[in-house]
Amino acid sequence: MSQTKPAxxxxxxxxxxxxxxxxxxxxxxxxxxxxxxxKQVVCQGKVKASPYVVGGKRYVPLSLRQAQRYEQMGIAxxxxxxxxxxxxxxVTANGEAFNPMGLTAAHKxxxxxxxxxxxxxxxxxxxxxxxNDRGPFPSADNPDSKKRIIDVSYGAAKKLGFHKKGLxxxxxxxIPVKSCN
Length: 181
Hints:
single chain; alpha/beta; globular
């Protein structure tokens, strides 16, 4: 009996260690695409940075090198509700199926795809999103959208805490990338 008690006592330290690890993991303030930890430098494959035209206006995306220094404060909006009921969904400018609940975004000038950190300046929440679409663009329904710097998915807006409000003051910064080649 004395042999089983020390063996049992030696394993009792495992529970507090696992609980502490779980709690520390839960305290993370930055969420990432697919829940992977953020690396200082992300390996970037082929990017889409060709000029394009929307509503008669020509847009020229930044090169990957120029995008490395991109950082801006402005207004963010969210999109995704309009595609939930659309048959066949929505395909992003990068050719991917749009997931309104994903952590993605649309930007007029950044190369696709690229990861950015979006921080809600009104509540301090911050997440990493993958820019894989173009926008926001002015429309008859939404003429002031030209003042917005980024459109995030509904899922990202929810994590950032402005899904009910619709708009938020944000800081957007590109996560440094390097070419995979």
